[in-house]
Amino acid sequence: MPERIIFTEEFCQPEDLYPFTLTRQIQDIRIGILTIREKWERLLGAVSYDKFEDDYKDLDRAVRIDKKLGAGIIYMIHGNLLPTPGLVSAIKRLKNGEFLCVNGDAGIVFRFSAKEIVKPNQVKMNKAVVIRDELPSIRFPWDITRLNAKALEEDWKLLKGRRKSQPLSRTNRVTKGHQVFVEKGAVVEQAIINASEGPVYIGKNALLMEGSLIRGPVSIGDGAVVKMGTRIYGATTIGPGCVVGGEIKNSVIFGHSNKAHDGYLGDSVLGEWCNWGAGTTNSNVK
Asked: Is 168 in contact with 175 (CB distance < 8 Å)?
């Protein structure tokens, strides 16, 4: 049976991340290129669910911690915790009944099987494993922009792996091309891309129109459109399906939102299905 992840918000105080957690679990917040859920699934090679007793939004993903979970390894992970190489390595060394804690504080990752489940929502843990590392987590909306540059770099390496980028045509001007990764189906012509200060990721079927100016670290998600003359500074995430224009700096747009016209968006987090009218300007996580 495949390994499974169960995310919990029990100690994460999702209300501190309102309004974003009114419509999604913490682990479904996008930071970097991927959501927190997507990062953990890829790094641990596991499918994920949400702990039923939390303030869940998706009934199809909600599971109870009881014997009905069946055989196989289960990792219970705090939903606001971002993976790091050291943390992932420590998790993979855990045995059933062991949990990770940071500098003797409460546990952050628990590994168990049905054998360790004593009764519903009660799991017998036998050993604490201390990890002495600063582990990034998001507690407030401003943590999303504060941690986005590092998350972009880690996700870029994760998604690239050993794959080769699709080539960019000679109409583009690129600096540090080895730090630019382009997925299949992306269309980029007459753009300027500078990856000197961080990597640039361009997703499947994305479109960068003529005159787009990109300064990494930046991610342009699958199917996103960057309109003519747009200026994007790092560290910025443009989620899948977005249409953007104007000037954007140090911001995260989750997905399927439009900021398609002139105006400035800086140091901000924008959720899904938002539409900004022409000339709208905002900054500093309002």
From this structure: no
Condensed to tens digits (0 to 9), the pLDDT of residues 233-243 reads 989 999 999 99
Q: Are residues 215 and 127 in the same domain?
A: no
Asked, for residue 144, whether it belongs to a domain, the answer is no
The answer to whether residue 146 sits within a structural domain is: no
Q: Going by C-beta distance under 8 Å and a sequence separation of 6 or more, which residues neighbour residue 114?
A: 67, 69, 70, 71
Q: What is the CATH number of the domain that holds 271?
A: 2.160.10
pLDDT per residue over 198-223, tens digit each? 999 999 999 999 999 999 999 999 99
* Among candidate residues 38, 133, 39, 28, the one with its CA nearest the CA of residue 83: 39
pTM for the model: 0.92
> What's the rounded Cα separation, in Å, for the pair 89 and 111?
14
Stretch 133-161: mean pLDDT: 94
- Domain containing 191 equals 154-283
At 236, list the tokens: 């910025």
Residue 184's pLDDT band, with cuts at 50, 70 and 90, is very high
Residue 267 DSSP code: S
